[in-house]
Design brief:
Number of strands: 7
Number of domains: 1
CATH topology: Rossmann fold
Strand order of the largest sheet: 3-2-1-4-5-7-6
CATH class: Alpha Beta
Distance between the termini: 38 Å
CATH superfamily: Vaccinia Virus protein VP39
Shape: globular
């Protein structure tokens, strides 16, 4: 199906969107996720208003007027469409190389959800944009899928305007869970053993071969090269510290740790240990990179 033909079709309603998403998931995620999980994910996509990332970003960064946005790994377009509803100049790129491969791609679905031509097939390692093109760049559940994480981050910073922001969220593979297959997983399990394990569980290892493990510590290491030009905010850490300071944890264990942190003699140590524990056990990584208004590394 040509992109021109797709662009001329009517915008999908929710029923049509759900039907296409189910077709896409069943073809592309066959033997990766169970049919039950595929339906749950499709329902969550249909119900998602795409606003969550914008809410997280605006806690620490003010969206400028006439904001230009690039969604790297835009999937079926939910975030880009949410930005467009707000009047933001948002665009999405998606290689659509995840899983088994299918005749129906996520880019094709995204293009049928909005009339504007705002989605393109491209990879994060080679962005088809000039330097300093965007105010906000989003990579939501993308870094674990790219072939070269360093190159993708370099490209994102290259096309980011001075004073702009990059939002990154991805799984934490220190957990005992694989979020794509939705099964128990040993932290950083070697791929060779992972393939045997998946076959034993009756799953296809095709997606595992496309994954690059991500962790909080790994992201921080990647960001070090930009520390002269960018500030990194760990959103999960900020949320934890806010609850830690206020003693507003819901769990009794969290409240106990917060009380220990108030002790003058050991409070600093308790806080440091709690943060290291958080970085290991948290379900995912969520970070915001703020580029200095006066760029040191790139000429715009």
């Amino acid at each position: 199906m040509s992109s021109t033909h797709i662009q001329n079709l009517a915008v999908l309603n929710n029923s049509e969107l759900r039907s296409l998403l189910l077709q896409y998931r069943r073809e592309n995620w066959q033997d990766i996720q169970t049919p039950e999980w595929q339906e749950k994910i499709v329902d969550s996509i249909v119900e998602d208003d795409g606003e969550a990332v914008l809410r997280d970003v605006t806690r620490f960064w003010k969206i400028p007027s006439q904001c230009s946005v690039l969604d790297i790994g835009s999937g079926v377009g939910t975030f880009v469409i949410a930005c467009r509803r707000r009047g933001l100049q948002a665009f999405g790129i998606e290689p659509d190389r995840i899983g088994q491969g299918t005749t129906l791609s996520s880019v094709q679905i995204a293009r049928r959800r909005i009339k504007e031509r705002v989605f393109a097939v491209a990879v994060g390692e080679s962005l088809p944009f000039p330097n300093c093109s965007f105010d906000l760049i989003v990579m939501n559940q993308v870094m674990e899928h790219v072939a070269d994480q360093t190159a993708v981050l370099d490209e994102a910073v290259r096309v980011l305007k001075p004073g702009g922001a990059i939002y990154i969220a991805c799984p934490n593979y220190f957990r005992f869970y694989e979020p794509h297959y939705k099964i128990f997983w040993l932290p950083l399990l070697p791929k060779l053993l992972g393939r045997f394990y998946l076959r034993f569980r009756g799953r296809s290892p095709v997606l595992l071969d496309q994954l690059s493990y991500t962790t909080n510590f790994r992201l921080r290491q990647l960001f070090q090269r930009f520390k002269a030009d960018c500030k990194v905010i760990d959103l999960h850490q900020e949320q934890f510290l806010s609850k830690y300071t206020k003693g507003s944890f819901a769990s009794g264990r969290g409240q106990f740790v917060a009380k220990l942190g108030q002790l003058r003699a050991i409070g600093g140590l308790i806080r440091w240990v709690a943060l290291q524990y958080l970085h290991i056990v948290e379900g995912g990584c969520e970070m915001l990179i703020l580029r200095s208004p006066i760029s040191a590394n790139h000429v715009c």
